[in-house]
């Protein structure tokens, strides 16, 4: 689209600001930007879900230390965390009335909760 605009010849007024083709180009750019955003979001999501390690946190069910993935912290019990895998079976071994916080990043969570 952008190339067509500049190469397509003599009957187009390139210096006109109201040219309808400019809005077409803008639309194309928006599409490209949107695409880049989507890619960024995907990468971010991947990082959140797979690469962040919860240092110093132990899953209270499978006892795995420094696990990856999402950390689930019980809102009612003072020191109760479970990993992603164990969360799926949580209702079998933990009080169903307890709320759990979903924590992607323990470091970030600590920063935020210390400020409050
Ligand atoms: Zn676990
Ligand atoms: Zn609990």
UniProtKB/TrEMBL annotation:
GO molecular function: K63-linked polyubiquitin modification-dependent protein binding; protein kinase C binding; zinc ion binding
Keyword presence, Zinc-finger: yes
ZZ-type domain mapped to chain residues: 54-108
A matching Pfam family: ZZ
Single GO cellular component term: aggresome
BP terms from Gene Ontology: aggrephagy; endosome organization; mitophagy
Matching InterPro entries: Autophagy_Rcpt_SigReg, Znf_ZZ, Znf_ZZ_sf
Keyword entries, A-Z: Metal-binding, Zinc, Zinc-finger
Zinc found in the keyword field: yes
PROSITE patterns named in the record: ZF_ZZ_1, ZF_ZZ_2
PANTHER family noted in UniProt: SEQUESTOSOME 1-RELATED, SEQUESTOSOME-1
The protein's name: ZZ-type domain-containing protein
Organism this protein belongs to: seawater metagenome
